[in-house]
Automatic annotation (TrEMBL):
Gene Ontology molecular functions: 2 iron, 2 sulfur cluster binding; disulfide oxidoreductase activity; metal ion binding
Family stated for the protein in its record: Belongs to the glutaredoxin family. Monothiol subfamily.
Domain of life according to the entry: Bacteria
Lineage of the species this protein comes from: Bacteria, Pseudomonadati, Pseudomonadota, Alphaproteobacteria, Sphingomonadales
PANTHER family in the record: GLUTAREDOXIN FAMILY MEMBER (PTHR10293), MONOTHIOL GLUTAREDOXIN-S14, CHLOROPLASTIC (PTHR10293:SF72)
Keywords per UniProt: 2Fe-2S, Iron, Iron-sulfur, Metal-binding, Redox-active center
The keyword Metal-binding is assigned to this record: yes
Gene3D superfamilies in UniProt: Glutaredoxin
Protein name: Glutaredoxin
Domain Glutaredoxin: 17-81
Annotated residues for binding of [2Fe-2S] cluster: C30
Entry-linked Pfam families: Glutaredoxin
Organism: Sphingomonas cremea
Amino acid sequence: MSDVKERIDALVKSNDVVLFMKGSTLFPQCGFSSRAVAILDHLGVPFETVDVLQDQEIRNGIKDYSDWPTIPQLYVKGEFVGGSDIMMEMFESGELQQLVKAEA
């Protein structure tokens, strides 16, 4: 598990904004991932994605890494932000815009 944790850690720390999701930005594989991508696209912030469906170790490991049971998961500057519901709440309140703009 430490190898997976190291891989996830490297992804989280090497990208200012990274979304672990099901599918890709062009073809999200679940509604929650689609909503998360739409929010980030609307903000106009550059972000990386990791398709957890392509790597079962990452899919399971990200849940342990964040201690969060669901996907998608958003990280900004190495910090776990949350899933799509939290992203939506933060977007609606303006918090997410502030977070990504402050970090970008």
